[in-house]
Amino acid sequence: MRSTALALAVAVGVSGCASIEEFSHTHSRTANCLLGGTVGALAGAAAGALSNKGNGAVIGGAVIGAAAGCGAALAYKDRIDRLRSLAQEEHLQLDVETLNTPAATASAAPQEAGFVAQVQDEGMFAVGSAQLSPDGERQVRKLASAFGGQRDTAILVVGHTDATGSASFNQQLSERRARAVASILAEQGIARQRMYFQGAGASRPVADNSDPLQRGKNRRVEFVEVNDTATLVKRVNAEQNNPKYLAHGTATVAKSPARQAKPAGSLPARPSATEKTAAPAASGPALVVRSGTLIDFGGEAVSSSQWTLGQTITPKSGGFTLVSPAYASTIPVSSCEADQPRESGKVFNLASGQALDSHPTADYLPGYNNRVWAQTVNGHLVTISPVSILRMDAAVDRQPFIQVVTDYAKGNRKALIKADAVANTYEGEDRVLYRVFLKDPQAPVSCMDVVFSKGSAKATDGALFYPRRDGETFTARFVPVRT
């Protein structure tokens, strides 16, 4: 009799999920609900069977289990719908993306792990300030109501700025803004232990910073809700050093079309205020007359070349099936010459103030453990030391310095310069883009892009950028080898 009841319980679970199909916008949600309801039905039926209270308990447990499974599958959809409704009431620009984890088997549906909601800062904060405006405070309190209730999910608030101002100032500003928003959510009854905040500064642009009509889109507040802390760690790691954010640079000086391609489908936006700060503006590698030593690396003018290096770097999924295939042919579309060093902060828990441990190890990618990499370019030796890339997220462990020995091919061994630099990395599935900026604006090299293989200690492509006395920027191929 119990086997018959168990079979009936499964049928109850399946039919229960089928009845709510009309509320689902996508097949994946319906499939997830179906799977969740079936699993819930089996779990509930098993509990009823073990209670030795007969078929009634078995079927009752199945109904409860099915409801729980379907409820979990649709919970995120309800909050997304609520957020969209509130954003519409407040005339806020809201973009939502569902996070899915890969299916355990080929026949199973991906599992919903949470969602990401991006809200553009339409006056939510005063320019250059972390103090919410009266309208901004009202808007955040409204949005907070969508996250209310007793749940065990983890919520992360990320602050983003445009690229005007220094990278360090923008990171700190965005962190204070994220904390202010997270605190409002906590005031609305969300447990502080569930709340996390992060300041990403200008490190993850979604629009062209060199276009005053577009850069305002980069000023936004991001809400992430996921199943648990372990899933949050996956999300944080997936975003750290994600090459999808190379589609736009962080230089605020306009570049020629040959140097910085516009993504397809870019729409004009109304002018918006610039993030004016007390910090000096980071205006990108401006085309100015150089007074320092200049070196001919035998390259060509950037204005007459098309930069395609690194476009084969496919963003890693990071445990999610969220990366759009549309990115594959457009990442990255800008070189280091249209970029600036980027700085993103740690993730902190609102209750404890402790940083989220998202890097459990400090192992290096094989072959990238503080070695010297060098190559001659038009007879001149260029050295990067050390190249230090961690296995986790391909993060930079130690910042490098750049050394240039002119006329190395003719026997010279005396270095012309030894300059400090800042490196950023962007991790793909099988390659890493290593982007280096020299700190000295008068150095004979402006920046470098090197593509490293993750499978072997080998550079597969690369380029360096250097100034001419007339102010124009040139580029030459640079593929260093490990020494």
Q: Percent range for helical residues?
A: 10-25%
Gross CATH architecture of the largest domain: 2-Layer Sandwich
Reading off the top of the CATH hierarchy, the class of the largest domain is best stated as Alpha Beta
CATH topology of the largest domain: 60s Ribosomal Protein L30, Chain: A
* Number of self-contained structural domains: 3
Look at the structure and give the mean pLDDT: 80
User: What is the strand arrangement across the widest sheet?
Assistant: 6-15-14-13-12-11-10-9-8-16
Spatial extent as radius of gyration: 26 Å
Number of strand segments: 16
Q: What is the number of helices?
A: 6
Provide the succession of SSEs.
HHHEEHEHEEHEEEEEEEEEEE
CATH superfamily of the largest domain: OmpA-like domain
Name the poorly predicted regions. Answer: 2-32, 34-51, 65-69, 256-272, 277-289, 322-328
- The CA-CA distance between the termini, in Å, is 74 Å
Query: How would you characterize the largest beta sheet?
Result: 10 strands, antiparallel
Secondary structure category:
alpha+beta
- Specify the overall morphology: globular
Instruction: Name the beta content range.
Output: 15-25%
Explain what this protein looks like in three dimensions.
The chain has 483 residues and is of the alpha+beta class. It folds into three domains: 2-75; 94-291 and 311-349, 2-Layer Sandwich (60s Ribosomal Protein L30, Chain: A), CATH 3.30.1330; 364-482. 25% of the residues lie in helices and 24% in strands. It is built from six helices and 16 strands. It has helices at residues 2-18, 27-50, 55-89, 134-144, 167-187, 229-239, and strands at 94-101, 111-120, 154-160, 195-201, 220-226, 300-301, 347-349, 364-377, 380-390, 401-405, 417-427, 431-438, 447-453, 459-467, 473-477, 481-482. It has a ten-stranded antiparallel β-sheet, with no helix packed on it. A six-stranded mixed β-sheet has the order 1-2-5-3-4-7, with helices on both faces. The chain is globular.
